[in-house]
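User: Assemble these into one structure.

Assistant: Restating your components, then the assembled model:
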Amino acid sequence: MPAFDVTHIIIAVAFMLAMGLILSTLLAVANRKLWVYEDPRIDEVEEMLPNTNCGACGSAGCRVFAEALIAGELVPSNCTVIPASGTDEIAEYLGVDAGDVVKRVARLACAGGTHVARSYAHYQGMESCRAAALIAGGPKGCSWGCIGLEDCARVCDQGAISMNEYKLPVVDASKCTACDDCVDVCPKDLFSLQPVTHQLWVACKNLEHGETALADCDVACDACERCVADSPDGLISMQNNLAVINYDNNQFASRLATERCPTGAIVWLDKEIHLKGKNARRIVRQEALPVRQI
Amino acid sequence: MGLFSLFRRKTFSHGIHPPVNKSQTAHIPIRRLPFPDRLVLPLGQHFGAPSEAIVHKGQEVVRGQPIAEAKGDMSVPIHAPASGIVKGIELVLTSRGFKEPAIIIEPYKASTQEVLWSEYPSSDHMDREQLLQAIKNTGLVGLGGAAFPAHFKKNVSFEKKVDTLVVNGSECEPFLTCDHRMMLEHPTCLIKGIRYAMKVTDTHKAIIGIEDNKMDAVRLLQNHLKDCDDISVQAVETKYPQGSEKMLIKSLLNREVPAGGLPADVGVIVNNVHTLTTLGKLLPTGEGLTERVITISGPAVKRPGNYWVPIGTTIGFIIDQVGHDGNIHEFIMGGPMMGPAVSSLDTPITKGCSGLLVLNEPLINEESKKIWPCIKCGRCLQACPMHLNPSQLGLLAAAAEYEEMAENYNLRHCFECGCCSYVCPSNIPLVQYFRIAKAINREKAA
């Protein structure tokens, strides 16, 4: 064993000190030379954004959106998640116009809850709409309607979708960021993203007509064409026994089109609440319709 | 090989041995169901482009008359299964899961079983093209379940120069016995059908593969084929999914169909015995496909058996005719392993439907519905006849990594036989996961 030598320690300490000195000088120089100016407003604006990173604005996240705002590529109202007051706050801070991009929400084109839409079978398989849709299209008589096994509610990261007592998803417009997840997951393609200004809405996708459609669901579009007759030309048309609204002519839409609908399949949305016409049949039934027996 | 193979039963690797449950119906001769009050004939009951209706509402049709014609090469005509009135073309729910257009016929009360309309009967002098057209005119599709147009398959096989016709009489699905009864009751039609198929595909060798739990059929056919040296009968091991064409080719010929390939790539065409028997029955008279044999079985049925059923009969009518114990719980179209459950009694029997299974009590209890985590025991790997890795695929499916499943784990080679779900001790619905994954991938690709 070699004798204890204090010089070894001195050399080691001196070496470490010298290396630290050189590297820190290098870092100090690099910091000066390679420094990039970043607008301090980016952090400020990011603070004001909801930070959900939902992507509804088209940017990869809230920080990227903030950068785009400062670069003037997007306007504050592109963020449809924050309320109007938040948009105004950002606009004021940046001294830009808030813009008039309309908030979009996910909407379900079906109103066939268990109390109005008849099931032909009990489904007992995997608790998933996708799985049920693969087995004879699900238990419902209407093969276009909502299966009600909550795939959309599960996939929604914002907690905006909840199931009501009739096993239909209800979208909370204040939480919905229009991220497209529910649109992708629904096996019946019932969800779509709609600007809130599209107030006239057909809550049905059934392609049958008359009694055949009504045999499966009390609130189906039975292709009576009354809404087509009661609306300005070019707003509503009948395609494959279903009323289809041409939103290019949305400015002509009014509640009048819904008034004579016998089933209430076409509705007027006020803050995303369905308002049926006067002549729509009243649904008083609360409990689920029984499954058709043999 | 050599001496060793003498003692080895002809089979493929992997697979499972579910209870066969065939004794209920295997010994009962085929019976006939009456015409229902309403026949529902979906236009898209075969694989390929839907047929085009050539009748209109209110028109009178006779049994055997074409009511829809083929639209393109991969399509077949549809014939009226009974004389009656066309009630219209409506949207009906089929076992495929969505509503599609179907011709509705209301048969006359006294509609005859005699076929009143037929093409020119085919003769031995027909050349290949004429014979192919005659096969197309019968509206015949693969009656084993896939409903692939028969003429198209034979044409593709001819172009690929196949050398062997494999006749699939293995019927590996539990409960089903319709192919078994067909072989026992119509062996001459079957042989005639095989001759037609050999002529059309220009093959000089045919092997009938039958699972060894149907030795009576093997012996009967061997007796009938004593003097032929180009058609042989071969018993194969009773194992699920022996009736899958790729497995059967491996068992009989020890040839392996390349991944993503067709049997024709290894010089084989596979036809189901029901298909060929029907071919042998229809071609000599020039009739169209108006009825087929299905096995109606299951614990809830009072009179189980095999029945000649007009195409388009709804299952509600069938269950009235065969009787039930009043406690029906579930209907399955086809066999229990791959058959889909149906959601409506108005669902019609289509050309590709080989059975109707009626279950009366929930055979799955609450406890076994529970899904446990994968314990990586590897049983699914030992069961998968396609040599996939269902365990890993299942984990990926749970994480919604559908693209990864398709790209790196060969999801598209899964033919949904259900062996993995059957053996899984954790009750993981693997095959259901894979069907969802495939559906989502299909949607993305579209």
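Residues 207 and 241 of chain A are 5 Å apart (CA to CA).
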